């Protein structure tokens, strides 16, 4: 057998430019089947560089007809797709300490007896699998005339591809063939990377720059690609399953909140993703995520590094625009509230904000009551509805919209269970009053644990009496009106004021009032008449009764100006 016992150093030296890889621990960790979201923090994200090198599928090596390799065990459906990054020959009793994952191990079996027992074969194959070996090749004609059936059985049961190497094929030929194939793959990947980067760069020039970049990258990589902002809101995506969006939003928020730069995650169904933050460490702008369909190689990472850079620039640009737009919208609302409608219209025209026309409504809510899903749907409604725009005024979030958009606004608040208040219909010149109406409706919704939009109606106000409650002068005049009665009660030990209060509470009906006071109805009538005499008033007059009731209400012992008696 020509050159069959290749020196280990020769093989290692020949393939060293083509082999750098992850540790066995990482491979084994990725084989774990998590029952819930599992996360592995990564030191490096998608930036160019790193340790992943090109691989070739095992089937490509085995199909090199000049080598005469024949698979005899472990030929599962995916055996031909297993990656090969290294070919190594060894006759050591235990070569695994010197092997790296994705290795094809070649041996003549010289360390074994002519007829190894099943336990030895099982132990040897199991250790190779634990080391991440891709396949085992056994040369015949030197130590064994045929591959022992115990090795065939072990490889079949444990799932390790086993192939026979004919006597006329030197191990060094297999090594050199693998090296040529890997070198060709590396050159092909370099060309692919250059072409993919050129396509993505051209996509960035499109009108929908970031969206086109993400779509092109997903197409080139054969993976879904997604970009979120720092809050987890999906900014652009391509190929992402809609059912995974909420999971991805949550994990993106977690990555940013922990201050990590990259991570690999899996959900309870085994679906995986790789995440990397965008922006500077102290100024994270968002997250780039891709499906975890294997570790990205250097060509993939070069493309993803370009996507990351372009996305960062776009997010920085958008963040600046969003901040400026928010400030301009606040300025527009402030001008409208101050009655500067024409100036607000000119400013809106220069900022691509179309002011509502015709009957309008104002809606008010609180940021603390909203969710990320609500905010995302609100942005979509804002962007796709002419005559509707969101803004803030004195830190209060508002929606100002043409009345025709009210059904869509109601659906938005109702779908997300967000309490809010909406005004009556009015004109743009009445915006200040409409905002006050929306504020009052929102207060009502919050006080009653509402989970939808509450429409303003005049009865939501405290009423005319609330104005008197806050007036010092009203309290003073009420005390003056009741002074004769109170002086009489104090001088004679009578209870005229109490009798009048209860009598008016029962709408001037004597019997129920007397029953509540525990006195005879004739006694109550006498006290009421005494009160009328003291005040020199006719209690049959409704205005007199209303004025007396207001005075009694404002002069209650526990009622101070600004307080309301319930």
Automatic annotation (TrEMBL):
Residue span, Purine catabolism PurC-like domain: 62-182
Any Pfam family the entry gives: PucR
Domain of life, per lineage: Bacteria
Region Disordered: start-end pairs: 26-52
Gene3D superfamilies reported for this sequence: PucR C-terminal helix-turn-helix domain
UniProt feature, compositional bias: Polar residues: 35-52
PucR C-terminal helix-turn-helix domain boundaries: 498-554
Protein name (Swiss-Prot/TrEMBL): PucR family transcriptional regulator ligand-binding domain-containing protein
Originating species: Leucobacter edaphi
């Amino acid at each position: 057998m020509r050159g069959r016992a290749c020196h280990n150093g020769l093989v290692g030296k020949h393939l060293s430019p083509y082999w750098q890889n992850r540790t066995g621990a990482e491979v084994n960790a990725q084989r774990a089947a998590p029952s819930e979201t599992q996360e592995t923090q990564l030191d490096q994200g998608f930036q160019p560089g790193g340790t992943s090198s090109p691989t070739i599928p095992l089937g490509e090596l085995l199909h090199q007809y000049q080598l005469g390799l024949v698979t005899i065990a472990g030929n599962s459906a995916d055996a031909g797709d297993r990656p090969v990054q290294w070919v190594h020959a060894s006759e050591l009793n235990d070569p695994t300490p010197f092997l790296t994952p994705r290795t094809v191990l070649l041996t003549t079996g010289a360390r074994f007896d002519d007829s190894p027992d099943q336990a030895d074969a099982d132990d040897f194959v199991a250790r190779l699998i634990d080391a991440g070996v891709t396949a085992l090749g056994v040369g015949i004609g030197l130590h064994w005339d045929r591959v022992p059936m115990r090795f065939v059985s072990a490889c079949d049961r444990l799932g390790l591809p086993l192939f026979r190497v004919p006597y006329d094929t030197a191990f060094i030929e297999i090594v050199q063939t693998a090296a040529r194939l890997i070198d060709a793959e590396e050159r092909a990947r370099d060309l692919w990377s250059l072409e993919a980067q050129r396509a993505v760069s051209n996509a960035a020039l499109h009108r929908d720059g970031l969206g086109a970049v993400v779509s092109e990258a997903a197409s080139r990589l054969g993976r879904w690609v997604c970009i979120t902002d720092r809050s987890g809101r999906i900014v652009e995506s391509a190929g992402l399953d809609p059912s995974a969006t909420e999971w991805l939003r949550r994990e993106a928020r977690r990555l940013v909140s922990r201050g990590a730069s990259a991570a690999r995650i899996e959900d309870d169904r085994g679906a995986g993703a790789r995440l990397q933050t965008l922006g500077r460490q102290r100024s994270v702008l968002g997250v780039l995520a891709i499906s975890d369909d294997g570790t990205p190689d250097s060509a993939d990472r070069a493309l993803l590094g370009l996507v990351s850079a372009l996305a960062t620039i776009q997010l920085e640009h958008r963040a600046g625009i969003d901040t400026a737009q928010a400030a301009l919208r606040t300025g527009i609302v402030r001008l409208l509230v101050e009655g500067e409608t024409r100036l607000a219209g000119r400013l809106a025209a220069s900022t691509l904000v179309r002011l509502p026309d015709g009957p309008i409504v104002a809606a008010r809510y609180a940021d603390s009551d909203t969710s990320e899903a609500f905010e995302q749907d609100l942005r979509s409604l804002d962007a796709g509805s002419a005559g509707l725009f969101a803004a803030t005024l004195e830190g209060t979030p508002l929606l100002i919209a043409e009345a025709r958009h009210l059904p869509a606004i109601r659906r938005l608040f109702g779908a997300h269970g967000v309490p809010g208040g909406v005004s009556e219909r009015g004109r743009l010149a009445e915006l200040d009053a409409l905002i006050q109406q929306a504020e009052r409706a929102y207060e009502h919704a919050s006080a009653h644990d509402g989970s939808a939009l509450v429409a303003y109606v005049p009865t939501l106000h405290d009423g005319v009496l609330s104005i008197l409650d806050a007036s010092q002068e009203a309290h003073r005049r009420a005390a003056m009106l009741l002074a004769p009665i109170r002086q009489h009660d104090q001088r004679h030990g009578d209870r005229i004021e109490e009798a009048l209060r209860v009598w008016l509470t029962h709408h001037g009906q004597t019997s129920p009032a007397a029953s509540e006071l525990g006195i005879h109805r004739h006694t109550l009538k006498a006290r009421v008449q005494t009160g009328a005499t003291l005040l020199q008033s006719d209690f049959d007059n409704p205005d007199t009764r209303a004025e007396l009731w207001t005075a009694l209400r404002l002069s209650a012992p526990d009622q101070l100006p600004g307080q309301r008696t319930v």
